[in-house]
Amino acid sequence: MKNFTSVKDIPSIEEALQVAKEVKENPYGFKELGDNKTMILIFFNSSLRTRLSTQKAAMNLGMNTMVLNVNQDGWKLESELGVVMDGDKPEHLREAIPVIGSYCDLIGVRAFASLEDKSSDYQEKIIQQFIDYAGVPVVSMEAATRHPLQSYADLITIEEHKKVDRPKVVLTWAPHPRALPQAVANSFVEWMKETDYELVVTHPKGYELADSFMEGVTVEYDQKKAFEGADFIYAKNWSAYHDYGQVLSKDRSWCVDQEKMALTNDAKFMHCLPVRRNMIVSDSVIDSENAIVIDQAANREVSAQAVIKMILEDQ
Ligand code: CP
User: Contact, 268 vs 207, CB < 8 A?
Assistant: First the structure.
């Protein structure tokens, strides 16, 4: 593996699950891979899980790690080419990226969608510049349109909890006070499509995701109908794709509660975290034994370690 930005970068779902199993069973068994190697983690946006789990994963593999919070610890970085840099950003990515690459063997990047310019976001302009100019492999720690380390961890978690070979997995939109990117939802759909699970997406009208992700996926606008017989409920808010970045609804009736979970096949409840209680999910659901959100978060270390291992083995 050269870079990791989507499900297309893994050899296959089966192989990805096998590597995840190996690192989970023996997290410190591959330390020689990272000997005298350094991973730099670049954050343009906040994080709890991604920062800690990716750093831990790299350390498990014997790597040195450095973290830079752009805009807080470093210079503000310009990402647009051809602009007159007379504003508040004194350095351009075009220089910063190869400089960062000169200090390390692997770069992790978190750069969320702007939610202002759909075209720029969906071209993945920031992470693509890292790939073009870093000179070392690049791992997405959530980019504008995808969050593949999360989706990989979600897949591992479903495999660990599923009771039937082909579970029904439902991705449900849920309300949130602020506009959030579509990355987690896009990526979850993309990874689930690579499995033989039954996938249903439910959301209010107006929250349709991009066709490039949704081709062939069942959409059910009636949330309660979608929940019937589900084995896994994955809740997530996203802002509108077509009315780009808009919050069209804060309808609290879409909150995942016990009444809706009772329609399922004793489904497990999933969310990538951080989650807003009693907006996205009721206390009673997230505090129930069917909630597997902590398992998902714990598996972020596993997915990150599996990805870094595959990259180091190909270097
Ligand atoms: N799920 C996730 O990526 O969490 P953080 O934003 O805290 O990294």
Answer: no
